[in-house]
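Hi V.,

Quick status before I head out on leave. The structure for the redesign project is tokenized and pasted below; the design run finished overnight.
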């Protein structure tokens, strides 16, 4: 987590340097094209020095002079704005440039972290986790129905038909995603049935809509929560989980459950439901076991607010490996 914070800090520093360079290039451009603006900026500098001298040497005269300086500054600003607009530049062309107007590229908005800070943490975590490469390979464009068996399983439809129905359902849910219709999905099924692939299809579709995503394993997720709870770390896992547009928890059920993890899981689920944010979960557990293991309060949220999609059939990875070796 410290590496991610350092990387985000460097991103802000780069933004500030890049934006300062943009402003300096604009300033040189304007000074060359409209010399009078250069003169006005020099006058501003002189006024600032004069005000500083008066403040140090003659405080009694400060108020009178201050009013005079304010009037001069106002008139000069009006002239400067007029010169810019007359030459087809925007009024704010020589104002400081910021990537994020809310925090002025500091990462802090008032007394709290800016939303852009958490978005950068999320996206940096996404990049460092290797998900960028994975989602280029695992998405709707690479979905191949042929890897699923077309033989019905008992009284159920074939794994292939089931996978096609699930893919169609995911497309519909991601297309319609909004705060009123969050994309809340639980993928269940045994290892190798395609849960992670389908989860990645949904994640990629939501990322393509410009949403921020936090992808985490259940084990790592709850370990970070516990570390923060007991004061052994200052990681922001909880904030990331509540603030991101899309939270993906992979392999729910492998973590060591405790009253603490259940409390935080319930709190995070409740907050995300209230805010209309999407949550996608994969688990090897059956829905029945999942509901039993996480208690009535969490189970009721899963039942009421999540769409459960169950994948079944043979282990796809084993089948593909066998076919490759033949």
């Amino acid at each position: 987590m410290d590496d991610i914070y350092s990387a985000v800090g460097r991103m802000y520093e780069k933004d500030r340097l890049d934006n300062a360079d943009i402003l300096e290039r604009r300033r040189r451009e304007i000074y060359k094209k409209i010399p009078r603006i250069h003169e006005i900026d020099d006058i501003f500098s002189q006024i600032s020095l004069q005000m500083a001298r008066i403040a140090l040497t003659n405080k009694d005269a400060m108020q009178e002079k201050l009013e005079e300086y304010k009037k001069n500054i106002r008139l000069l600003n009006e002239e400067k704005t007029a010169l810019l607009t007359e030459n087809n530049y925007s009024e704010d062309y020589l104002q400081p440039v910021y990537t994020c107007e809310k925090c002025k590229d500091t990462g802090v908005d008032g007394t709290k972290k800016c939303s852009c800070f958490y978005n950068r943490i999320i996206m940096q975590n996404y990049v460092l986790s290797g998900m960028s490469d994975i989602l280029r390979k695992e998405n709707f464009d690479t979905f191949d129905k042929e890897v699923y068996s077309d033989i019905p399983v008992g009284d159920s439809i074939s794994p292939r038909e089931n996978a096609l129905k699930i893919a169609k359902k995911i497309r519909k849910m991601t297309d319609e995603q909004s705060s009123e219709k969050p994309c809340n999905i639980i993928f269940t099924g045994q290892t190798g049935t395609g849960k992670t692939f389908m989860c990645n299809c949904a994640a990629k579709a939501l990322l393509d809509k410009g949403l921020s995503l936090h992808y985490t394993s259940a084990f790592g997720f709850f370990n970070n929560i516990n570390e923060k709870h007991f004061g052994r770390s200052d990681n922001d896992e909880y904030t990331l989980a509540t603030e991101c547009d899309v939270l993906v928890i992979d392999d729910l059920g492998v973590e060591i459950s405790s009253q603490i993890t259940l409390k935080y899981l319930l709190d995070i689920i409740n907050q995300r439901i209230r805010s209309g944010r999407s949550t996608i979960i994969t688990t090897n557990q059956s829905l029945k076991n999942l509901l039993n293991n996480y208690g009535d309060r969490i189970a009721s949220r899963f039942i009421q607010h999540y769409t459960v999609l169950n994948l079944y059939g043979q282990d796809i990875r084993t089948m593909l490996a066998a076919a490759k070796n033949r």
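Above is the designed sequence. The domain at 129-325 is CATH 3.40.50.300 (Rossmann fold).

G. will cover questions while I'm gone.

Best,
W.
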